[in-house]
Each structure stands twice: as C-alpha cells, then as structure tokens.
Specification:
There is one protein chain. It is built from 13 helices and 22 strands. The chain is an alpha/beta fold. The chain folds into 3 domains: 224 residues, FAD/NAD(P)-binding domain (3-Layer(bba) Sandwich), CATH 3.50.50; 111 residues, FAD/NAD(P)-binding domain (3-Layer(bba) Sandwich), CATH 3.50.50; 113 residues, FAD/NAD-linked reductase, C-terminal dimerisation domain (Enolase-like, domain 1, 2-Layer Sandwich). Helix 1 packs parallel to helix 8, helix 3 packs antiparallel against helix 4 and helix 3 runs parallel beside helix 6. The chain is globular. This is Dihydrolipoyl dehydrogenase. Keywords: Cytoplasm, FAD, Flavoprotein, NAD, Nucleotide-binding, Oxidoreductase, Redox-active center. It catalyses: N(6)-[(R)-dihydrolipoyl]-L-lysyl-[protein] + NAD(+) = N(6)-[(R)-lipoyl]-L-lysyl-[protein] + NADH + H(+). Belongs to the class-I pyridine nucleotide-disulfide oxidoreductase family.
Amino acid sequence: MSKQFDVVVIGAGPGGYIAAIRAAQLGFNVACIDEWKNAQGGAAPGGTCTNVGCIPSKALLQSSEHYEHARLHFADHGISTGKVEMDVPKMITRKQGIVKQNNDGILYLFKKNKVTFFHGRGSFVKAAEGGYEIKVAGKEEETITGKQIIIATGSNARALPGVPFDEEFILSNDGALALEKTPKTLGLIGSGVIGLEMGSVWRRLGSEVTVLEGMDKFLPAVDEQIAKEAKKAFDKQGLKIELGVKVGEVKTGKKGVTVSYTNAKGEAQTLEVEKLIVSIGRTANTIGLNPEAVGLALDERGQIVVDADCKTNLPGVWAVGDVVRGPMLAHKAEEEAVAVAERIAGQHGHVNFDTIPFVIYTSPEVAWVGRTEQQLKEQGVKYKAGSFPFLANGRARALGDTTGMVKFIADAETDEILGVHMVGPMVSELISEAVVAMEFKASSEDIARICHAHPSLSESTKEAALAVDKRTLNF
C-alpha cells in the first residue's frame, strides 16, 4: 500500500517548497517531490531559481561588480590595490557554495516543518479513491497517494529552433553560470533579464559582449523613459546592443560560434564569438509529468490551464509558478503557493498581479511595479508623472553611483499611484516601498508626506512622489 498524504507537491522550486511548508503549517500531512541533483548526485531542492537562476546569477553579479570596482573605482576612494586579477574558477566555486547553502536550507526547512521529501521525478499514475497516485522515480521507484496535488514543476530555457543547447558553445542560463574562464568574445541572443545580467557579468570580467535583440525597442515591458536611461548606461559601459535583428543560421566550430543575421536596416551581418548565450524566454516544464494519465489540461503553449485561483480542470489538482500563466518570477510563484495552500485549508489566499514587482539586477538596476506611461496612454487613462534623478541624491553621490532616476505615475484625478519605475543603485530594494504603497491604494501625496531617513537612496522615492505635484525640494 502506497504512503498516503493530504497534500503532495511536485517540484521544490520557489513555488513548490513554499507550498509544501505553508500546507504543513496549516496542519496537513505533506510530501514534496523534486529531482534536482547536485554534482555529487545528492538532493538539490530550490529549482531553477536556486540552482541555475536567481541565486547563482546574483552571486556572479556581486563578484564581477567587486572586481570592476577594484579595477576602476577604488582609486577614487584613495584605495591602492596594485594589479587586480580575477580567479574565475574560484568565483564559480563561491557561487556553488552559495547554491548549496540554499539547497541545504530548504532541506532543513522541510525537516523543521515535518514535510516528507522524496528525491526523484514525480508523475501522475492514475486517479485514486479520494485523490491521485503519484510515481516517484528516484534511486528506487515508489508510489504515493495525495488527496490534493500541487504542481510546481517550473520552466526550461527555450532554445533557438534547430539549435539545441550543448552548454559548451551554445549556452542556456545553466551553461552561462558555469563558465570556467572568461571568453574573449561573447554573444547573446535576447536582451531580457537573463541576457542582460549574464552579459553584465562577463563584460565586467573582460568579455567583448554583443547582444542581438529581435524587438525594435529595448526592454519594451519597461517604462520607455526608464528603458532609455538604462540603455544609455549599458552603451556607456561597452555592452553592444543591436535591436531589430533577425537571426538566421547559427553554426558551431572548433573555435566558437558563427551567427548569421540581418540588422535593423536589412543588411546581412555575421557575428563570430567564442560562446553564445541564448536567452529568448522559457517554456513550461511538464516533461515526465504524465498529464495525459489523468486528463490534465494544457494550453497551446504547453502550460497547465488554471483559473484565477490556480485550480486546474481536475478536482483537487492545483498548479503554480512558471508552469502556469503569468510572469515567470520566483516571487510570483511563492505568492501563488501560499495562496493555494490556504485555499486548500478553506481560507482566502491572495495574489494581486497588479502589484508584482519586476527587477533586473544589472548595474544600474532596473525595477518597476504597476503600469507604464505607454500602457496608460494606450488605455486612455489620464495621469500625472514626476521623476527625481539620483544625481541630486546625497547618498548616491557618496556611493559614487548617481546613474538613473525614480519615477512615479499617479491618477490625474484621484492621485492613486498607478506605477513606480526606477533605474539606478539598489532599486531592487527601493521598489518594495512602492509595492506596499500600491497594495494599500496610496496616493503619491501619501509617499510625499512620509519622513524618509537622510541621507538615503529612499529619499529619491519621496522626491519623485513630490515631483508628481511639481514640488521637489532637492532638484
């Protein structure tokens, strides 16, 4: 007889492990299944985010930023270092150590919350009395039964048609995070979050980086004013970004990769690089899930079909995170996970898609929440906007990083905040104030009248709110 659980979670990424922990906190007997392995073959829960995404990329961004500061900016502070060198294998080892700390932390949290962890791939077998049978294919194969199933199987990197990832020359985010030496030349197809972050890492370490982007506009999802400011900074740093390109044949050889493409003018071009990172989006991961065994519905994109509450077409089966509709963000997956666990318990879980923050961890960082100016114009919404540059912020001057600005957009009549957009130092931390404000339906006047510590970068948030009413105090 298979082991019986109230809730079985398939996947232990941000959506899965959080769903399992919250369900356990609510008194359910919970199992979580995950197949990620570390180099030694041991369990590595945390999904793409922990293993080959958010966490390791931030580790490399931090290391490369330290290197660039030591090489180019320490002298401004009166610090002499002599010749600065980067040990790339040591940087990668540090990154792997941080990943393992996170893996081990999740396993500890499972134990603390009495979640039963199964290391292997979870797949549907059949509907069973009062629930579903789930096969776990690990070192040993076993079957467990769950009354409620939460699918949190995440996503995979999308490859170019006919150009599979070999992780030697054609790299996904996985291969881009594991390079053992700095390539002299690096190509990126796609200027999204992953592309820009990985491009930033290797540019700082000495790569000549070229980004090929099919869209005519840079970061079209970002407020146009902010995107232009960001591109100006990236251009100045030496990131070569070509917009409006059409990628043709991609060939690998002994020395690297050759990409044939046409530029925005329609001219045929060739790019030769040692390594090519392909960052053109991600696809829902249902590999091996065996959805057809129980009649689980998928859409034309391969994502699991869910309603507003993350319910699938099957009773007692839920899905969260990258495998369903909505932005592919770790924190969105976590919010859905908590909401689903609470809905199973008969509570009213809450996820507000309108206040999910977005962040690009480049330098300068880019962060935003809510609607952009271009969206409001398209929707015919009357608004007023105000911005404040970090150039006029005392803390930014002291940091030596005055790039960028904070921008507020508010309803023209009610003054309710409709969107906040930032580019500059540490805006990944500043954006949370805007998220809280919007969740509580705050006005720009509310933020303008709140006391902010001096000197701090957050004063730029206050000043941008003041700018909506054309009454900044420091610019």
